[in-house]
Design a protein that fits this description.
Structural class: alpha+beta
Radius of gyration: 26 Å
Number of strands: 26
Distance between the termini: 41 Å
Low-confidence stretches: 1-24, 38-78
CATH architecture of the largest domain: 3-Layer(aba) Sandwich
CATH superfamily of the largest domain: SGNH hydrolase
CATH class of the largest domain: Alpha Beta
Bound molecules: 2-acetamido-2-deoxy-beta-D-glucopyranose
Strand content: 15-25%
Helix content: 25-40%
Largest sheet: 10 strands, mixed
Shape: globular
Amino acid sequence: MLTAEYEAVANHERPKGVIISRHLSKYALIFLFLALSGLFFLLRNILTLENLSCHACSTLLSQAAFAQKGPIPPYHNSTFCSHLGLEPTPDEALEDRYLFNTIAWPKLPARPAPAPLIQTTDPVHSLFTILPSNGRREWHVGDQLEALVQMHDFQGRPKRYGGDFLVARLHSPELGAGVAGKVVDHLNGSYSALFPLLWGGPARVEITMVHSSEAVAVLQRLREQRPNRVFFKSLFRSGKLSETTMCIPCLPPNYPQQPLCNYTDLHTGEPWYCLKPKLLSCDTRINHAMGGYQKPLYTNKEELLFQSHVNIKVVIRASGPDRISVLSKKIELENSSIKPEPVKYIPSGYYYQGSWRSFGGTPARQFKDSSSVTQCLTGKVINMYGDSTVRQWFEYLSAFVPEFNLHRPKKVGPLMAVDSKHNILLKYRCHGPPIRILPVSTSELRYVANELDGLAGGPNTVVVLSLWAHFTSFPLEVYIRRMRHIRQALVRLLDRGPGTLVVIRSANFVAMDQETSMHSSDWFSLQLDRVLRTMFTGLGVVFVDAWEMTLAHHLPHNIHPPPAIIKNMVDLILSHVCPDKKMKS
Ligand SMILES: *[C@@H]1O[C@H](CO)[C@@H](O)[C@H](O)[C@H]1NC(C)=O
Ligand SMILES: *[C@@H]1O[C@H](CO)[C@@H](O)[C@H](O)[C@H]1NC(C)=O
Ligand SMILES: *[C@@H]1O[C@H](CO)[C@@H](O)[C@H](O)[C@H]1NC(C)=O
Ligand SMILES: *[C@@H]1O[C@H](CO)[C@@H](O)[C@H](O)[C@H]1NC(C)=O
């Protein structure tokens, strides 16, 4: 899990329900510690304020800056993240509005107080039914299957409003087959799950409630009101003096007047700020790292909405059979006057015998052995940028292209792999902040848009991007702004080097519990995923639909999908790098 990676550095969390006296004693301890360590370090002629500043930063964050209560500010107007960045142009503001509309989520009905748990959605009391096809329980390949879901609360009463986050898949373990379904919210407590029937034989419907509508409302509040629930830190060093301070992209408008270091990127305008160290100057920042998680975030009542095995990712039962048998295509229909119903929902692909078959465009090929991979990559430079989910692809491919040791930490990079015989170069670099990472040197901390501006491009250049997992905890404008800068750089790259292949990976499902839901819930990822697709459609880039590829697969959700899925993803990319000329027709 990504969080496992964070844990190594996220060691300044505060326990829930901290009380003042404990703070006082903590301070006393810190001062004692400081006094002793000051003495100790003075003796050795070294002064380090690392421990002080990190206690200071989490306390400061949670008490001074975020103690504010009151009404939620308007959705996309006055959140904390907008006022320190550049003003959007009128065109950008228009696009923002459009994007926010495409991801609008149904609101809870207005009521004086939050619903008690017993009136919230309970997946165990909820049921789905497979609807007959044209009045008969007979299905053929090419038909569309519909299942109707009725949600209930913990008292067994039907829900009367929508907004629950449901996902659906149709699968067949016998055939190694699976496809993501589309869920339609009827806004009255019932939902339809639609599936295209793509293979003959057995098929089983699986519908899962990821979060109740009430839980989604909490996540929405966290995203807008607690944008710094994941925070970062930087180490400053000059000679023997070092200090650590907290860094974030978003500051509330009423942030206490505190000296800041402004690391806004001059090229892209991406904002980034750290608290100014007490003794050192801003230009002595030497690294960037994960700082920690703010706590507590949920109220006691809200906590009940995020219980593993109760209302996080719980499968909904069928009121009747949950499986069907799909017959082969109806041949006789071709010549009859009755036309089959048009398929309303087209997924981006499906698994059959464990292999992903992609719809639309280049058919996916299998790259079974090392020589087929090498042959495909011959003469190519593959530039990978993003989070650890694209690093997984680098790692997979480095089994075929020998890694060149740049003496950088494996989980941080940059990484490089070279096959000079076949003229193959593979590169990986993490994206710029916010990135929850082990300490990365400021010299290696680059924005993807700037890296893209450094490429000449052309038919031998492949660019692979994956940015999502570290943006889930921020208001959407942070992600939109980042992707907009990348899109501008891609347009320039494609003009400069026509024939450059650009591959973009979408978000995937992750393993979730109460803790991880706060900052990495699939609901946040879903929203980023929709924004990403909308923003990059029509640009001639290839999407790797990690969202559907992890939903349709039988293996458990994980922020780092297991090797079986990674192989399918890389095969899909290779199919675009070296399309089969014969199959392309
Ligand atoms: C943002 O809010 C201000 C008033 O607070 C309003 O004048 C402005 O039109 C709003 N902008 C958008 C894009 O809604
Ligand atoms: C909910 O809405 C759907 C679609 O409009 C409708 O078919 C269904 O009967 C409604 N259910 C209830 C309980 O009103
Ligand atoms: C930070 O620097 C950028 C670029 O120089 C500037 O536009 C911005 O206003 C600065 N931010 C603050 C809060 O001073
Ligand atoms: C269906 O129509 C095609 C020509 O349109 C014809 O060749 C074929 O024999 C017909 N099949 C049947 C079963 O009638």
